[in-house]
Amino acid sequence: MPHPPKIAADALEDAARTVMAKAGIEIPDDYLGGIREMADTERGDLSAFVLQAMLENWEAAKADQRPMCADTGVPRWYVKYGNEARVEGGPVEVERRLRRATARATHDVPLRPNRVHPLSRRDNDNNVGINAPEIEYSFEPDADWVDITTVHKGGLFGTDYRMLFPADGIDGIKRFYLDTLVAFGKRGLACQPAIVGIGLGGSKDTCMVLGKQAACLRTVGDRNPEPEIAALELELKELGNSIGMGAMGFVGSSMVVDCHIEVGYTHTGGMPMSVHCFCLSSRRATARLHPDGRVEYRTDPQWFTPYMRRDTVEWQTAAESFEKSA
């Protein structure tokens, strides 16, 4: 069977530069809709003022084509490879082009050059350096396209981790969740209202990765396919908005735009948990590159596919699972 044509490296770099600008400037419709709903129900004076100011600032930023927030975060990449996809120059060229696009966008959009060496504080003035920007990968069967998603997330605060144990149960999850939100609100460690991502299980590093992906790569209103997890997402969203804190930690009821949970099988003796808050500039954008040269842009990364959440040794499509159970 002949291979599909290769995706051009130049096209990938140009698309990456475009999504960097989109993420920095254009607020996704799902998040914008969630903020508008909160603005309609918020009764706290200062929180209501902040929400309205956010909406007005977003409109001004879009009209002026410049980032709303002076701190444009630390750019990172999520690449989803179709199993049949091929890119000109291979994976090494993909990473080269993503780093080039990051440097270009830092100067052209512009984005604040936030990345520095941790000890010398050397700044390359382009958000590129050792292990920067981060590039994470996932794969998709029966596809010949490549998705590139950029996320500009704050790199200092808005994240916490705790090793829970099986006996802590759902109550322990709620307790750590509330402890984290209250601490973030009181100390100004997150820019509420935010999409909150929770990682449950896995090893410590997997737990942290899943929580960040849950916050940054799922849209407002999206629910986990496991009913028990989906119900907990909704319960935690309501719980987070009932603690008396609103926008930017002021008195109110608008702290959590949505809550997303992702899980990973973990050690039998533990239940690690991470909590991540995206910021009020929910900055993400995706481009899908096809081998025929087409490029499609969207704001839903579509990262968590059934294949990524598979729970078997062998991958089975939904149709195959149905046929075997019939």
From TrEMBL:
InterPro entries: Class-I_Fumarase/Tartrate_DH, Fe-S_hydro-lyase_TtdA-typ_cat. It comes from the Bacteria. The keyword Kinase does not apply. The keyword Iron-sulfur applies. Keywords: 4Fe-4S, Iron, Iron-sulfur, Lyase, Metal-binding. Pfam families: Fumerase. Residues 14-287 form the Fe-S hydro-lyase tartrate dehydratase alpha-type catalytic domain. Transmembrane segments: none annotated. One of its GO terms (molecular function) is metal ion binding. Belongs to the class-I fumarase family. This is Fumarate hydratase.
